[in-house]
Amino acid sequence: MRLIRESFRGNALLSSVTGLTDGILTALTLAAGALVAPGGHPVSVRLALRIAVAALVSGAFVFYVAQYSHLRGELVRLEKQLSMTEHGRFAASHLGRQVAAEAFTTATVSSSASFVGALIPLLLGALFPSFRWAAIVASIGSLGILGSVLARVVRGSFWRWPAVLMAGGVVLSVLGAALHIV
Predict the structure, then answer these.
(1) Helix (H, G, I), strand (E, B) or coil at 80
(2) Contacts of 49 (CB under 8 A, 6+ apart)
(3) Sign of dihedral through CA atoms 28, 34, 40, 44?
(4) Which residues contact 76 (CB under 8 A, 6 or more apart)?
(5) Rounded-to-integer distance, Cα 168 and Cα 22, Å
(6) From residue 112, how far is each of 115, 152, 159, 165 by CA, in Å?
(7) Is the C-alpha dihedral spanning 11, 60, 110, 27 positive or negative?
(8) Which of 152, 137, 142, 148 is nearest to 114 (CA)?
(9) What is the pTM of this model?
(10) Measured between alpha carbons, how far is 182 from 41 in angstroms, rounded to an integer?
């Protein structure tokens, strides 16, 4: 039972981190053009919510498909290791239903985190309309904090993890500004 709890915590952590990162980067890419353009407009609460909902919906689909296909692949691998003659027996059994339920749970955690990751930095931008860069600064700062937490959890480099995530945020901000999507 302890192994199952630890496995769930590990999956929940991975799902949360993936979702938060996805939400923050999605928000940066979509909103950066409006925030940095000369004569651009500040982020409104309505725009922040629209972008966060888009991150939630796309994240739910992507995370479910990724997790479900990964877990179904594990069932196929187990069937091969057990030299089962009929393929798809595990997927048709209660294990297949458990895989679908776990994928749904993982997608729910990830997409909820994606919603939060996109919403919070953009809401900060909406709260400080005279400082249009607030959303970008908050997003890149959030990625740095997330990188520090990840470094601690995976016992990685305390400087490398935040630096890489923040660099990704800067790159996607520049890309978003160039594409000017919103």
Answers:
(1) helix
(2) 119
(3) negative
(4) 87, 90, 91
(5) 11
(6) 5, 23, 28, 20
(7) positive
(8) 142
(9) 0.83
(10) 10
Quick: pLDDT tens for 96-134. Answer: 778 888 889 999 999 999 999 999 989 988 888 788 788
Is residue 177 within 8 Å of residue 139, measured between CB atoms? no
State the SS3 of the chain. Answer: CHHHHHHHHHHHHHHHHHHHHHHHHHHHHHHHHHHHCCCCCCCCHHHHHHHHHHHHHHHHHHHHHHHHHHHHHHHHHHHHHCCCCCCCHHHHCHHHHHHHHHHHHHHHHHHHHHHHHHHHHHHHHHHCCCCCCHHHHHHHHHHHHHHHHHHHHCCCCCCHHHHHHHHHHHHHHHHHHHHCCC
Listed residue (133, 88, 100, 138) closest to 117, CA to CA: 138
Say what the pLDDT of residue 54 is.
Answer: 94
Beta-carbon count within 10 A of 24 CB: 31
Cα–Cα dist 175/95, whole Å:
43
Residue among 91, 115, 89 nearest 103 (CA):
91
- Name the band, by pLDDT with cuts 50, 70 and 90, for residue 154: confident
Mean pLDDT of the chain: 83
